Amino acid sequence: MPTDTARITALDTYDVRFPTSRSLDGSDAMNPDPDYSAAYLVLRTDAGDGLEGHGFTFTIGRGNDVQVAAIEALRGHVVGRSVSDLCADPGSLNRDLIGDSQLRWLGPEKGVMHMAIGAVVNAVWDLAAKRAGRPLWRLLAEAEPQWLVSQVDFRYLTDALTPDEALTLLERARDGRAERAGTLLARGYPAYTTSPGWLGYSDEKLTRLAKEALADGFTQIKLKVGADLSDDLRRCRAARAAIGPDVRMAIDANQRWDVADAIAWTNALAEFDPYWIEEPTSPDDILGHAAVRTAVAPVKVATGEHVQNRIVFKQLLQAGAIDVLQLDATRVGGVNENLAILLLAAKFGVPVCPHAGGVGLCELAQHLSMFDFIALSGTTQDRVLEYVDHLHEHFVTPTVVRDGHYRAPTTPGFSAQMHPESIAAYVYPGGTFWSTELEEQS
Ligand SMILES: [Mg+2]
């Protein structure tokens, strides 16, 4: 069996940036001009089967080089490892990367270094799913509960969730897994769209895109808010007029406010019946979220795209600070830590509506939501996965959303792989797109 001796032979990195700031796609109250970017890596092996592990983390432009450097700092932990051992137990790499004591000083388990760990760990899961011949959601959904529990780092969690409790949650969901997989393949996983609501869009564009979202089968849209209250009142009025009273409309402040502002501003927009207020304040402010939640009910409080690790999510849940948990596929330490976060949410009975959009976040997050539906929470009730119709064309197996639902991917892997031509064009600063741009500017 030649593959049993196969090793990881290379970890290659790419600083990939897309010029999204020019169209104000992705603009919000905190991030007016993002260039959606991926700090991207490829794991190569000598297995001779042509399979590679692809992974990345999402940034919004400057600093993507810093993120790439952080990924490169992990190379020594990965190159030379046994491919079959790694794919049988990605958690072993997760523990080694988090446990590098010198690099741990830069966190611990937060920020640039932790996102780098997430990118590398996710690349291993991509490779593992490809070798298993399954899309990642299916690999996870068909896995033995005991093995899934072994993939989770319970350090700092056991006051809220023990391994035994996690096992019970997964065992409880065994019944009906095949039936739910059938439902998923037939209908897909419910999505909502943020495409109408970028802050830089005109009212006319907002109204047109909101109506298009309805026609496309979405039952929830999201608007960016938080820069100017009179603008927000006008935009929320326009959006509500476009979609009518029965479609859910979430609002997202991207951390713009202090707690008192968050409460006053959300209540000022309450007449438009927002479903949730997203990132009302700092993602580190657990008690602040709890205060906002009490003061703006029945508007729900959502956060998570900038929550740095499972420990902060644990506290948000323990404090009763959120109604909706928005995990991110690349913010934390990869699939292993997101398993922990999904288990915490299941324990506390809080629905998970992942953050997506960016570059490739939809492609990754769909696998986590689909696993959650089939093998953990067992429901899509009040669960929706964010969808933004940007940059999917750069991926080999882009997400497919139809009638307001993500279609379940069937190609083996984590859907993380970009086209080589896209990388060649948008790698910074030497890619064909950027070198032409930079030449014209000089
Ligand atoms: Mg958001």
UniProtKB/TrEMBL annotation:
The keyword Cytoplasm does not apply. It catalyses: L-fuconate = 2-dehydro-3-deoxy-L-fuconate + H2O. Keywords: Lyase, Magnesium, Metal-binding. Its cofactor is Mg(2+). It is an enzyme of class 4 (lyase). It holds the Pfam family MR_MLE_C. SUPFAM superfamilies: Enolase C-terminal domain-like (SSF51604), Enolase N-terminal domain-like (SSF54826). The keyword ATP-binding does not apply. Residues 203-299 form the Mandelate racemase/muconate lactonizing enzyme C-terminal domain. Its EC number is 4.2.1.68. This is L-fuconate dehydratase.
